[in-house]
Amino acid sequence: MSRHSLLAILLVGVVWTTGCLCDVSVLSVRNSLPTGQACGGSLAENLSSGARIYCPGSEEFTNSTQRWSTLDAPTFRLTVEVATENDVVEVVKYANQQNTSFLAVNNAHGAIITTGRVQNGIMIWMRQLDSIKIAEDGQTATFGGGIIDKTVTDGLWAARKQTVTGGCECVSVIGPGLGGGHGFLQGRHGLVSDQFVSLNMVMADGTLQTIDATHELWWAVRGAGHNFGIVTSITSKIYDVKYPQWSFQNFTFTGDKVEALFENINKYLLQNGTQPVDLWHHAFFSQAGIVLYILQEGVEAVSSAYTAPFLALHPVTTFAGTGDYPDLPGWVGWGRYGGTCHNAGLTATTRFPIELQTYDVRATRRVYDLFISTLNEIPALNRSAILLEGYAQQGVKAIPAKDSAYPFRGSNLLVAPVIRFVEGSKELEESAVRLGEALRDIFHESSGVMEKRVYVNYALGTESVGETYGEERWRLRRLRRLKRKWDPEGRFSFYAPIA
Ligand SMILES: Cc1cc2nc3c(=O)[nH]c(=O)nc-3n(C[C@H](O)[C@H](O)[C@H](O)COP(=O)(O)OP(=O)(O)OC[C@H]3O[C@@H](n4cnc5c(N)ncnc54)[C@H](O)[C@@H]3O)c2cc1C
Ligand SMILES: *[C@@H]1O[C@H](CO)[C@@H](O)[C@H](O)[C@H]1NC(C)=O
Ligand SMILES: *[C@@H]1O[C@H](CO)[C@@H](O)[C@H](O)[C@H]1NC(C)=O
Ligand SMILES: *[C@@H]1O[C@H](CO)[C@@H](O)[C@H](O)[C@H]1NC(C)=O
Ligand SMILES: *[C@@H]1O[C@H](CO)[C@@H](O)[C@H](O)[C@H]1NC(C)=O
Ligand SMILES: *[C@@H]1O[C@H](CO)[C@@H](O)[C@H](O)[C@H]1NC(C)=O
Ligand SMILES: *[C@@H]1O[C@H](CO)[C@@H](O)[C@H](O)[C@H]1NC(C)=O
C-alpha cells in the first residue's frame, strides 16, 4: 500500500470519531441536501461541488453551530461548509457584498466571548479542508486550513514524522497556531506558529495571498493571525521522530498537600524556568481533588528523580505507563474520548488565564481554598477546574521575542481557572466571572509582575489588547498599523480583536 493511500484511510478513520465536535460524520454530509439553499441566495452557483450550505431549521445547521462553550456564542443565518480554497474566497466576497459578518470555524473550541459580536452572520466551516501533504524532502508538510490535531499527529506518524500541535485531539492546528499554540513538543521546536513556513490566506477584501517571510504580515500572523484573514492551508516544518516512546506517571492528591506539592513542582520540575526539555507536567484542581501528570520523552518510565519527591507526599493514587507519542492526549484526558473533547454545546466554559514564572506556594493555597469553598457554596459551578500547565520552554525561548506577534516567550507557566456552568440566570454567570477573576487576581498579585499576561487562545474576551498581545508600545503600534492597513473594516475583528 502506498503511503498516500494509507494516509487517506487514516484520515477517513479519524473523522469517524465519537465524542467531540469532530464526530459529525462525513458520510451524513455527503448524503445530505444539495448545495443551493435559499438562505444562501445565489452563492451556491459560485461554490465547488463539494461545498454545502446549511440553513436554520435543518438538523445539519443546528449541528454545525454547536460550540464547546455556549457563553456569548456567535449566531449565524447560514453555514457554508467549504470544500476548496476558492470556496472561502467566494464566501468572503459574498459576505462583503451582503455587508454581513462572517467567522471561520474549525471545531468551535474557541470560547472567547468577543466572537459573540457575530450576530446573524455567515459561518465558514473549514472541516473539509483537512488534507496532509508531506514534501518530497521530508522537511515540511502542507495542511488544510481546517485540519485538527489528531489528523496531523496520526498522518505524520504514519511517515515517522511529527510537528508541534496543541495537545487536545479535537482542537484545530490553525486556531491555536494563529495565536502561538502550545504543545507537547514545544520544548524541542517552539510554538505551533514557530513551525509556519507559509500560509495561504483569504484577506478582508476576498483576495488570496501567500504569506511567508517576505510578506509584511509575516510578523503579525504568528501570534495575532486571527485578525488578518482566513487560512486555507499552511506549510509547516516537520521533524523525524527521534524519540517515539514517551512515559507518564499520574498522581492524585488531597487538598492538604497543596504547599508541599507546589514546592516540589517548583524545585524538581520547573527548576526556575529551566524545566528539562524532555519533560512536560500539568496539574489541575477540581472538586474531586488535585491531579498531577508528569510526562517524559524517550524513556521507558518517568525518571525517579522527578517522581520520587511526589511519591513521598503519599498520593491517594498513582499510575505509570508507557507508549508512543500519539498516545499522549489520551493519558491526560485530552483524547477524542476524553471529557475536554466531549461537552460541546452543553455548558458555558469560561477561562481566566494568566502566565507565571513560578508558583507562589502561599498564593496557590489561597487559590485552592477559595476555589473549593466557592464550589461548595455554589454547586452549580462544581464542574469547574483550574489548569496549571507546565510546558518545556527551550524551543519557545530560543526565538527572539521581537520576531513575531506572540508576546510572552519569557513565561514559564500557563495557569487558568476554567469556570463551567449550565447557562441559566444572570446571577450565576456573574458569580462565575467573579470567581474566575478573583482566582486570577490572586495569581497575578503573587507574580510580582505589573502586567497581566493573558494567552490569547484562553482569554475570556474582557481583557485589554495589551494584556493579550503584550503591553510593549512598539507591539501595539505595529499591530494597529497593520490592522488599519490590511483589515480597515474590521472583518476579522471577532476573535480577540486588535481593533
Ligand atoms: C479542550 C481544549 C483544549 C485546548 N488545548 C490547547 C492546546 O493544547 N494548546 C493551545 O495552544 N491551545 C489549546 N486550546 C485553546 C485553543 O487554542 C483555542 O480554543 C482555539 O481557538 C481553538 O481553535 P479551533 O479552531 O479548534 O476553534 P474554532 O472556534 O473553530 O476557531 C477559533 C477561532 O479561530 C479563527 N479561525 C478558525 N479557523 C481559522 C482559519 N482557518 N483561518 C483563520 N482563522 C481561523 C476564528 O476566529 C475562530 O473564531 C484548547 C482549547 C480547548 C477547548
Ligand atoms: C459569483 O461570481 C460572480 C463572478 O465573480 C460575481 O459577479 C457574483 O456576484 C457572484 N455571486 C455571488 C452570489 O457571490
Ligand atoms: C447531528 O448530530 C447528532 C448528534 O451527534 C447526530 O446523531 C446526527 O446524525 C447529526 N445529524 C446530521 C444530519 O448530521
Ligand atoms: C453595513 O452594516 C453595518 C453594521 O450592521 C452598518 O452600520 C452599515 O451602515 C452597513 N453598510 C451598508 C453599506 O449597508
Ligand atoms: C530564577 O531565575 C531568575 C531569572 O533567571 C533569577 O533572577 C533568579 O535568581 C532565579 N532564582 C533562583 C532561586 O534560582
Ligand atoms: C492515571 O492513569 C491510569 C492508568 O492509565 C488511569 O486509569 C487513570 O484514570 C489516570 N488518572 C487520571 C487522574 O487521569
Ligand atoms: C454538583 O452540583 C449539582 C447541582 O448543581 C449536584 O447535582 C451534584 O451532585 C454536584 N456534584 C458534586 C460532586 O458535588
Automatic annotation (TrEMBL):
Lineage: Eukaryota, Fungi, Dikarya, Ascomycota, Pezizomycotina
Source species of the chain: Bimuria novae-zelandiae CBS 107.79
Cofactor(s) in the UniProt record: FAD
GO MF term set: FAD binding; oxidoreductase activity
Pfam families xrefs: FAD_binding_4
Keywords: FAD, Flavoprotein, Oxidoreductase, Signal
Entry similarity comment: Belongs to the oxygen-dependent FAD-linked oxidoreductase family.
UniProt cross-references to PANTHER family, sorted A to Z: BINDING OXIDOREDUCTASE, PUTATIVE (AFU_ORTHOLOGUE AFUA_1G17690)-RELATED (PTHR42973), FAD-BINDING PCMH-TYPE DOMAIN-CONTAINING PROTEIN-RELATED (PTHR42973:SF9)
UniProt signal peptide: 1-22
FAD-binding PCMH-type domain residues: 71-241
Name of the protein: Putative FAD-dependent oxygenase
PROSITE patterns for the chain: FAD_PCMH (PS51387), PROKAR_LIPOPROTEIN (PS51257)
Gene3D superfamilies in alphabetical order: 3.30.465.10, 3.40.462.20
InterPro entries with a match to the protein in the record: FAD-bd_PCMH, FAD-bd_PCMH-like_sf, FAD-bd_PCMH_sub2, FAD-linked_Oxidoreductase, Oxid_FAD_bind_N
